From TrEMBL:
It catalyses: N(4)-(alpha-D-Man-(1->2)-alpha-D-Man-(1->2)-alpha-D-Man-(1->3)-[alpha-D-Man-(1->2)-alpha-D-Man-(1->3)-[alpha-D-Man-(1->2)-alpha-D-Man-(1->6)]-alpha-D-Man-(1->6)]-beta-D-Man-(1->4)-beta-D-GlcNAc-(1->4)-beta-D-GlcNAc)-L-asparaginyl-[protein] (N-glucan mannose isomer 9A1,2,3B1,2,3) + 4 H2O = N(4)-(alpha-D-Man-(1->3)-[alpha-D-Man-(1->3)-[alpha-D-Man-(1->6)]-alpha-D-Man-(1->6)]-beta-D-Man-(1->4)-beta-D-GlcNAc-(1->4)-beta-D-GlcNAc)-L-asparaginyl-[protein] (N-glucan mannose isomer 5A1,2) + 4 beta-D-mannose; N(4)-(alpha-D-Man-(1->2)-alpha-D-Man-(1->2)-alpha-D-Man-(1->3)-[alpha-D-Man-(1->3)-[alpha-D-Man-(1->2)-alpha-D-Man-(1->6)]-alpha-D-Man-(1->6)]-beta-D-Man-(1->4)-beta-D-GlcNAc-(1->4)-beta-D-GlcNAc)-L-asparaginyl-[protein] (N-glucan mannose isomer 8A1,2,3B1,3) + 3 H2O = N(4)-(alpha-D-Man-(1->3)-[alpha-D-Man-(1->3)-[alpha-D-Man-(1->6)]-alpha-D-Man-(1->6)]-beta-D-Man-(1->4)-beta-D-GlcNAc-(1->4)-beta-D-GlcNAc)-L-asparaginyl-[protein] (N-glucan mannose isomer 5A1,2) + 3 beta-D-mannose. Gene3D superfamilies: 1.50.10.10. Residues 25-36 have a biased composition (Pro residues). Its EC number is 3.2.1.-. This is alpha-1,2-Mannosidase. Transmembrane segments: none annotated. Disulfide bonds join 346-375. Residues 1-20 form the signal peptide. Keywords: Calcium, Disulfide bond, Glycoprotein, Glycosidase, Hydrolase, Metal-binding, Signal. It is an enzyme of class 3 (hydrolase). Pathway: Protein modification; protein glycosylation. InterPro entries: 6hp_glycosidase-like_sf (IPR012341), Glyco_hydro_47 (IPR001382), Glycosyl_Hydrolase_47 (IPR050749), Seven-hairpin_glycosidases (IPR036026).
């Protein structure tokens, strides 16, 4: 019942900021398109065999990667179709595929979670046959019934109630994102209008069926606000704002930064642990996304986000002693900063980049790119090519408990501070940040970083009829896999991997074009919503 965040970190003085990662300072609103890799590639001064200068560095070599972006995009579509086909053959219409033994589970009420999560990815990839199957299915769901077998968790019956809010926002986000795309930039797919409108009416039915679950202080209000804006019913957005106000009023450790372990029931903040991974969904992440969604209504969210970002820069920045070139924000316990972060925090790069462009802050851009690089380095130094779940650069802890990772730390700048947390594999946060980094810099390097992850996943995680996380990211083969394909592998990972590689842009991209336009805002589950500030779709 309590959402809590793990703790860890180290306080750095402002002087350490001079180590900030070396990209040339970014300037807001360039008077032209961002430099593209082709432009760089025309200057073969020193190294004629490289297609572009950053294709090889001291610790990586991307020269073997195909430069044909269409073939990269097609390969990702092929992976998406493989995952879909495994699900459709063996798990439809349940929530999840267990790919090793062609079985299924119902982790989210048994309403067909994977289909709702995969729908807008199928739209963006223009896989019309898959879109049609899902659109035919969605109107058949009765959200007033829980189709899942109640499961026992820690002796407590889990059924629907404990995570109803988290469940609901996934289904809602999937329907609203698909609706906006089909009414807007993917109208040319020619989907029957009645089927598109059914998405909105089913979203309303779901919201009405589980309304009581919204009355909590957690979650991502953008889903609910958007439902209100599309249906004209203010009730959902009001619930979201009420919930948010609990968190706004919590005790601050530093301006804008509060503890993250709060009671879902009362909204009370239980302690002073915090960081950019608080709870299930980072509250900080959607403060700036709400502002992008509707800058007039959510001006004070942007002020709160800036306070959090400024306090992060002032108090939380760390550089591993073995790799002072790397920069990351740590977590905090009261005003003690810990040399620790998590895979879940890897979205911070993209979030700072988004804040930089909408608020015209070049310092946020420099940090956003540096944070994105911290996670790129994490994937690079895990032998499997899959980054770890937890990162520590605490040398006291290394020396006392984790000496068998000393050589990893010397090279990588991180070690895994938990011998039971070597698994990982379907995480979207890092590739989300690389996508924002590519969009604002046009630097092919970020595409290559993402492509390395795509290849690593295809090599180590393809098992049976789908994908599953590996057991050990520090072993090249992954040392075997688990038996669960997460719906967010299709909703988030494959979506961001595709968006960064596709050879053309669209108004559904983040940071689109010369002006870095955000006509869509991607929520925490990577469902794109048309922003309120622009012309209605
Ligand atoms: C969060 O607060 C609750 C209630 O005080 C406590 O039981 C729980 O252990 C805390 N979680 C963490 C990670 O500290
Ligand atoms: C934001 O500002 C509005 C209008 O000034 C106010 O009603 C609302 O309570 C504020 N929200 C928060 C979370 O502070
Ligand atoms: C939220 O966090 C709790 C506690 O860590 C976890 O049990 C639950 O599965 C998480 N929910 C989601 C949607 O990730
Ligand atoms: C390092 O780890 C030790 C042992 O867990 C902890 O007491 C200390 O606070 C940590 N320090 C930092 C800076 O993370
Ligand atoms: C934490 O990291 C900082 C550099 O960011 C370093 O100066 C400090 O010694 C580290 N502390 C520990 C316990 O590793
Ligand atoms: C590290 O080792 C100490 C002493 O053996 C132990 O008390 C502590 O729980 C360990 N910490 C971790 C994170 O494993
Ligand atoms: C380090 O030792 C622990 C405990 O024996 C083990 O679980 C872990 O796999 C080892 N890690 C490495 C990188 O060898
Ligand atoms: C992914 O794996 C499949 C099966 O091994 C293979 O046919 C395909 O070429 C791989 N894709 C890429 C991009 O390597
Ligand atoms: C792989 O996992 C098995 C246990 O399933 C273990 O015995 C073996 O040592 C691991 N291999 C490597 C290279 O870590
Ligand atoms: C498939 O494997 C899972 C464990 O990963 C197990 O719980 C389930 O019962 C298996 N299903 C079938 C049909 O064998």
């Amino acid at each position: 019942m309590f959402q809590s965040i793990p703790t860890t970190l180290a306080l750095l003085t402002a002087s350490a900021l001079s180590f900030a990662w070396p990209p040339p300072s970014w300037s807001p609103h360039p008077h032209g398109p961002p430099p593209t890799w082709q432009q760089h590639g025309n200057h073969h001064h020193h190294d004629d065999e490289l297609a572009y200068p950053r294709q090889r560095g001291p610790d990586y070599d991307y020269t073997s990667f195909t430069q044909d972006q269409q073939s990269r995009a097609d390969a990702i579509i092929a992976q998406f179709r493989f995952a879909w086909s495994g699900y459709y053959t063996h798990a439809y219409p349940h929530d999840d595929l267990l790919p090793k033994n062609n079985s299924f589970s119902d982790s989210r009420n048994g309403w067909g979670l994977l289909m709702f999560d995969a729908l807008d990815t199928a739209i963006i990839m223009e896989q019309k046959d898959i879109v049609d199957i899902i659109l035919d299915f969605i109107p058949t769901v009765d959200f007033s019934r829980n189709n899942a077998e109640p499961v026992q968790e820690d002796g407590v019956e889990n059924a629907v109630s404990t995570s109803l809010f988290e469940t609901t926002i996934r289904y809602l986000g999937g329907m609203l994102g698909a609706y906006d795309l089909l009414k807007g930039p993917f109208g040319h797919l020619g989907v029957e209008e009645g089927k598109v409108d059914a998405l909105l009416s089913q979203a309303g039915s779901l919201a009405d069926a589980v309304k009581s679950a919204f009355d909590t202080p957690t979650g991502i209000p953008v889903n609910l606000q958007h439902l209100s804006d599309l249906t004209g019913n203010p009730e959902y957005g009001d619930l979201a704002q009420k919930a948010e106000s609990y968190w706004f009023n919590g005790d601050e450790i530093w301006p804008g930064l509060t503890g993250g372990n709060f009671s879902v029931q009362t909204g009370e903040i239980q302690d002073q642990y915090g960081g950019w991974t608080s709870g299930n969904d980072s509250a900080y992440e959607y403060l700036i996304k709400m502002y992008v969604y509707d800058p007039e209504r959510y001006q004070n969210y942007s002020e709160r986000w800036q306070a959090a970002a400024d306090s992060t820069i002032a108090h939380l920045i760390g550089h591993p002693s073995s790799r002072p070139d790397l920069t990351m924000a740590g977590a905090f316990d009261g005003n003690m900063v810990e040399n620790y972060t998590e895979q879940l925090a890897c979205f911070i790069g993209g979030n700072f980049i988004l804040g930089a462009t909408v608020l015209d802050r070049s310092d946020y851009m420099d940090y956003g790119l540096a944070f994105s690089e911290f996670c790129a380095n994490g994937y690079r130094y895990a032998a499997s090519g899959i980054g770890p779940i937890e990162y520590s650069w605490n040398t006291t802890l290394l020396a006392s408990n984790f000496t068998n990772q000393t050589s990893l730390y010397e090279n990588a700048g991180w070690f895994i501070p938990d011998n039971t947390a070597y698994h990982n594999g379907q995480a979207p946060e890092a590739v989300e940040s690389w996508y924002y980094a590519y969009q604002v810099t046009g630097d092919q390097y970020w595409r290559d970083v993402a492509w390395a992850y795509t290849l690593a996943q295809n090599r180590t995680e393809r098992v049976g009829s789908g994908f599953s996380s590996v057991n050990d990211v520090l072993v090249e083969s992954g040392n075997g896999t688990q038996n669960f394909m997460a719906s967010y592998m299709l909703a988030e990972v494959l979506k961001y991997e595709y968006l960064i590689q596709k050879p053309f842009g669209g108004m559904y991209d983040v940071e689109f074009g010369k002006g870095n336009e955000n006509s869509f805002v991607y929520n925490t589950e990577a469902h794109p919503f048309r922003v309120r500030a622009k012309e209605p779709v």
